[in-house]
């Protein structure tokens, strides 16, 4: 007998919940906000909107379906199963946070407020969306593979650089031919989803002639941040795209770190002599339209 589908609600603690946890009481949280020129009302309203969206999404789950719930902080300890339907309630970044833990499960992005790029559905649409999870758009992910087997996936971008944002030293290789020793502020490798974020900012600032990828396009772009020339380092290769080719980075600093989608707490550490390879990931995010 096959199992009924399971709907997993994904959310993160609201700012109000975090403030109360940090300061002990609502009164203390209100005092803290006032010292920074803010009002508790806006935080309370945002908290109420998230709770209402979660309640509406939960109520939309068919009675004969299974259900689960997980906060962002616990994603690395939660076991998703193949028959899950993932309902993310929050902001766009929360879908990026959960993406690397999935393997083909459909994702419904629910917004508690104004629609985002990824969380674009109101909670009232969840009941219908749960029955149309075959209508999806595929979002390409970026993947880093280290020579010791470590892997990192990201929906927006992967950053590789010095943990303290000091000079990163490495040898950069494009495909099977070009290689250059560089010193820079690090390397960004981004997807079409990430083209609206960090990579897009770098692209606009330098007036790049690269064509940014579309969200579902199996193509990545990469940028070297603030590379500078010296007698031993060059600046000939500071941007490019990855489709069938890969980007390799041989570490020449004592230690560099890589993290995806801005989560510095979840890093891959690489030491001198190790090599990291970037390429489009085989896994994609299946975002329900």
Automatic annotation (TrEMBL):
Top-rank taxon, per record: Bacteria
Gene3D superfamilies named in the record: Probable inorganic polyphosphate/atp-NAD kinase, domain 2
Protein name: Inorganic polyphosphate/ATP-NAD kinase
